[in-house]
Write a structure and sequence with these properties.
By secondary structure, the chain is an all-alpha fold. The chain has helices at about 1-25, 25-35, 40, 45-70, 70-75, 80-100, 105-130, 135-140, 150-165, 170-175. It has one domain. The longest helix has 26 residues, at about 105-130.
C-alpha cells in the first residue's frame, strides 16, 4: 500500500501541474474538452468562464507543487496526511453535489469523479494503516521507546534519558554492606 500511495501521489502531482498548465495556457481548449461548444465560447459572458478556468489552472499548479514539496510529510505525518485526505475527499464530493444540483456533466468529468474517489480511497487506506495507527502503538502501556530514526545526537540524549528511567540493579555485594 505504501508503494501504491507513493506512486499515486507523484502521478497526482504530475496530473495537477500538467492539467493546471494546460488550463492556464489553453482555457478555450479545456472548455471544449468538457463539452462547451465553439459558439458558446464566442458569447460575451464566456470571458468570465475562461478567466475562472485559468485561475483554477493556476491553483492546480500551486497545489501540485505544494504536494511535491510536502510529499514525505503527506505520506508520514498525521497533520499533513489528514489535510491531504480531506482535500482528496472534497474534490469528488463537490462533483457529486454538482451532479445532484446542476445535473449531469460531460462524461469525462464523471470518469474523473470516479477516479478521484478511487484516489481518495487509496490514500485513506494508506493513511489509516501507516500514519494514523502509528500513535496508538506508542501510547500502549509497556511500549518500549526506541531511538530509531532520530538524529545521532538526539538518539544519544534519548538513550541517556531512557537509561536514567530504568531502576538500578543492586548487586549482592553492595546489599551485604
Amino acid at each position: 500500500m505504501k508503494a501504491l500511495a507513493r506512486i499515486c501521489l507523484w502521478l497526482y502531482v504530475l496530473v495537477f501541474i500538467g492539467a493546471g498548465g494546460a488550463m492556464l495556457i489553453g482555457a478555450k481548449d479545456a472548455a471544449q474538452m468538457v463539452g462547451v461548444s465553439t459558439e458558446m465560447l464566442e458569447q460575451s459572458g464566456v470571458a468570465s468562464l475562461l478567466n475562472q478556468l485559468r485561475y483554477m489552472g493556476a491553483i492546480a499548479i500551486g497545489f501540485g507543487a505544494a504536494v511535491a514539496v510536502l510529499n514525505k510529510q503527506i505520506l508520514t505525518e498525521k497533520r499533513h496526511a489528514s489535510l491531504f485526505v480531506v482535500v482528496l475527499l472534497l474534490m469528488p464530493v463537490s462533483r457529486t453535489i454538482s451532479l445532484f444540483i446542476d445535473g449531469f456533466p460531460h462524461f469525462s468529468l464523471l470518469l474523473l469523479m470516479l477516479g478521484e474517489y478511487g484516489l481518495f480511497t487509496i490514500f485513506f487506506l494508506h493513511t489509516k494503516r501507516n500514519v494514523w495507527s502509528k500513535g496508538k502503538a506508542g501510547a500502549e502501556e509497556g511500549a518500549v521507546p526506541t531511538t530509531d530514526g532520530l538524529d545521532p545526537e538526539l538518539a544519544e540524549l534519548a538513550e541517556a534519558a531512557i537509561a536514567a528511567d530504568k531502576p538500578k540493579a543492586t548487586s549482592k555485594a553492595s546489599a551485604k554492606s
